[in-house]
Design a protein that fits this description.
Radius of gyration: 32 Å
Structural class: alpha+beta
Keywords: Cell cycle, Cell division, Cell membrane, Membrane, Transmembrane, Transmembrane helix
Transmembrane segments: 21-41, 179-200, 221-254, 274-297
Function: Part of the ABC transporter FtsEX involved in cellular division.
Order of helices and strands: HHEHEHEHEHHHH
Strand order of the largest sheet: 2-3-1-4
Largest sheet: 4 strands, antiparallel
Number of strands: 4
Subunit structure: Forms a membrane-associated complex with FtsE.
Distance between the termini: 23 Å
Shape: rod-shaped
Number of domains: 2
Number of helices: 9
Strand content: 5-15%
Family: Belongs to the ABC-4 integral membrane protein family. FtsX subfamily.
Length: 303
């Protein structure tokens, strides 16, 4: 009997405040979708870092005869065979080095032609203008500074370049977008909380006569408050459900059926990452409105 009464009160409350309840559902859905999207974006950045940082190399470019007049690091002339042997030997001694690849000027020119074959500048360089280099794969890509310290400014070395630094701007951009999404999410959560508070207040005011009678016949405060709390929780649950649909739809349509086909070089997150986020979205969607309603009722439901 009590359960039937509570359920009937929930139905009455939702019908009386249908517009505000709909606004709560929409704001909760959008804010939680942004929250889930931010968590997935952070996971995507971590996945990309792990994927690309494992593949990047440190390039030690050696001086050629064209660098002697234009680069201060090569003022003493092109690299000698003795200097190349010494550099290779020192690289082999370092614990942070996993593997060393040597690229000759002819190989560098061939790779350049393959990479920029459609560019009008492809014929602007000749093989003798290309640089020899050692491509070094590190056991830990974050230990780049070891090579930077050991080989920068050394005779025969024109430059030590970490390919990882070329990716930092991309990751900084993605992190910035993630922070922006978190800010929008926080704003939407505030809007959702304000709507929940106002909805509960209006609902409590519209049913003040019924709650007054319940108090007179000895009903407990929690029993009086329970329908209002469940109304808010139900609206939050529906909003969380829509948020989950948005996240699953974004993964299926945006990532699986579009981005993965357009950008084949990126290792995108899988369904396991999405599935891990969904329970969190549902839990927040239920608990946030329920707690907000409970706190609001303690202040405004005095009968």
């Amino acid at each position: 009997m009590r359960a039937q009464f509570v359920l009937s009160e929930i139905g009455v409350g939702l019908r009386r405040n249908l517009t505000m309840t709909f606004a709560v559902i929409v704001s909760v859905a959008l804010s939680l979708a942004l929250a889930g999207g931010s968590l997935l974006a952070r996971e995507q950045v971590s996945t990309m870092k792990g994927y690309w940082y494992d593949k990047v190399q440190v390039s030690i470019y050696l001086c050629n005869k064209n660098d002697a007049s234009s680069d201060a690091n090569c003022a003493k002339g092109p690299v000698t065979q003795q200097q190349k042997r010494e550099i290779k030997a020192d690289l082999d001694k370092l614990d942070v080095v996993e593997k060393v690849y040597y690229e000759s000027a002819d190989e560098a020119y061939k790779h350049y032609k393959e990479q920029f074959k459609d560019s009008p500048l492809a014929d602007s360089l000749t093989p003798d203008q290309m640089q020899e280099s050692y491509r070094v794969k590190l056991k830990d890509p974050t230990k780049y500074q070891v090579l930077q310290t050991a080989f920068s400014g050394r005779q025969g070395v024109q430059e030590v370049q970490d390919q990882r630094s070329l990716l930092e701007n991309l990751f900084n951009l993605l992190n910035g977008m993630n922070i922006a999404a978190l800010c929008v999410m926080a704003l939407m959560l505030v809007v959702a909380l304000l709507l929940i508070v106002n909805t509960v207040r209006v609902s409590a005011f519209s049913r003040r006569r019924e709650t007054g009678i319940m108090r007179l016949v000895g009903a407990s405060s929690f029993y009086i408050q329970l329908p209002f709390i469940l109304e808010a929780a139900l609206a939050g649950l529906i909003g969380a459900g829509f948020a989950c649909v948005l996240l699953v739809g974004g993964k299926y349509f945006l990532i699986n059926n579009w981005l993965q086909q357009k950008i084949v070089l990126i290792n995108f997150i899988g369904w396991d990452a999405v599935i891990k986020v969904l329970p969190f979205i549902i839990a927040v969607g239920v608990l946030m409105p329920a707690v907000a309603a409970f706190i609001t009722l303690r202040k405004y439901l005095k009968v």
